[in-house]
Amino acid sequence: MDNSICQVYEDEIQSLEEEIKLLTEKYEDSQQESTFFSDEEILMAIKSFQRESERRESLSDLIAQLESLETDLSFLKKFTGIQFTSHFKKTVEKTTNRTVRKHRLSGNCYSLSFQLEFQLLEMQNKENVSAVVTDLGIIMESGEDADMSKFVSSTEEHGNLLRFFRSLSSYAEWYEHRRCTFLHFKGKYPDIVTLPEGLLGDYIILRNPKHSGFELMIVWKIHIDEEGRTTPVLDLLTKVPQQVLEQNMATIENAPACFRSMLLLFGIETALENLIKVVGLEK
Amino acid sequence: MEEGKRNSAHGVFAHLERLEAEAREIAVKEEKMKQEEEKQARLKARVRELSLQRDMLLAKVRLQKKRLREKRAMSDPAKSSARAVLEWKIKNIKGMLQISYLTGISGKQTKQGVCFCISTAYESTYLDSYYVHLLVKPEVQIYQHSVPTFIPLEEIAKKYLQTDIGRFLSVLSDHLNAYAGRKYQADQLQEHFSDQIEGTVQRNSLCNLLVFNYKVSSKSKTFPFNVRLLYGDLCCSLPTEVNVSCTPDAPASLAEMAAAHSDLFRRVALHKAFRSFSSAEESVDGAP
């Protein structure tokens, strides 16, 4: 009889322990949940502060703190090109000397946006804290780019998050530089320069409106290898009417090689400028 | 007569023994009951304690749900308290700044100028961080730093600091990450493959020159291979020059293996090369 009473208590203890475990997980999960507010909401909040005169002092401290933090964030963007737009973290496991957190991170680097999901295992040693990235998943906006896809796969496989950010920064900088260069020449020579795929395309076409049938296509690819090394590659393709081709065969055949030499000598912008001027000549 | 006395004495002893046995039995039963009661009391107390803990947690979770509902209600700016919106925005940005070290370069403006933190990592493992505090007025100069002396900081600063701080940080980061990568590989080798290495790996402070003797087979008593790795490119964690030779007493058949190792060390991280030696040996051992 007594045994059965003890058994009842033990069963109750077990069920309570399970319930406590579930509740603890629930509590920790909701504790990690963070809410994100739009700039519009912030502005509205700041406006409403000015009406709350009795609490103005502490609220103005909060505004100052927010402004200071935003300055730090934009300062980092200036040097890395990377800007985080949202961040969510959840503690998966926590002991005295190790913590595992799951992170979800969205952001952009210049005009390229990315989404990351990974686990970060932080271990406390005697001297310092070391962190290990696991289960890394990356979604890139420019997913259709074969080079970028290979690089992303390699990065995910090795969990090499630092290399991802460093290489993305370099790649996106070239991407932005190409966009600005195309925009500059389209603005400066609107009659000669056309952008069939817009500013985010990887080629421009030069044609003289007075000489129909003659076109130069400049293809500007940005290669990224599996190690994350970024290289701009520019090429010149020609489209010439048949009779002109017969008269100037050698010149036209040599044009791409001459363009590559010009790139090495003068750099991208000057080489393009010279080419556009040649295309724009009257004769 | 004597016999009668003996019988009655025997009867008394037997009776006493019976009484003793009964007393013992009662004592054991009482002890058992006492233990049962104590156990019950203990279990009852534990149930009470756990019930209390459960009720506390339940209250916390309910309270949190309520707060969460309030937070979600904040998405309607009319309902949300201005203070709460700001506090959440601050918390969010702080979280982002805390993990900005993952990008490799993070920093903060200070009264004197700017303090940058350069993180290093080898593949998925984040290693040491280094700090460079720059003064920006009257001209950009290094005020304080924790960069090791063998990293050519002055040379990099002379080249880029006045013209392009971003480039300066990037090149410095390349140097520090390559050094961290070389050091990490040597440490991993020493830690996980010490039985295959004779003594310790000889290395200089920059870890761009490593020399050691090693063996591939765990059965081997000697260390027939000698390797010298030179990392000519200080921004790289793979060697530019690899020299694997066999010790004079090593069998001639190992010369071919040394050439294969030389090629492997050029392409693969040091500890990974040794891991492949181990797996190759296991597959040979496991072959029928």
UniProtKB/TrEMBL annotation, chain A:
It comes from Aquila chrysaetos chrysaetos. Residues 6-69 form a coiled coil. This is Centromere protein P. GO terms for cellular component: inner kinetochore; nucleolus; nucleoplasm. Keywords: Coiled coil. PANTHER family: CENTROMERE PROTEIN P. It comes from the Eukaryota. InterPro entries: CENP-P. GO terms for biological process: CENP-A containing chromatin assembly.
From TrEMBL, chain B:
Its main location: nucleus. It is found in: Chromosome, Centromere; Nucleus. Residues 16-53 form a coiled coil. InterPro entries: CENP-O. Keywords: Centromere, Chromosome, Coiled coil, Nucleus. Pfam families: CENP-O. One of its GO terms (cellular component) is Mis6-Sim4 complex. Belongs to the CENP-O/MCM21 family. This is Centromere protein O. It comes from Aquila chrysaetos chrysaetos.
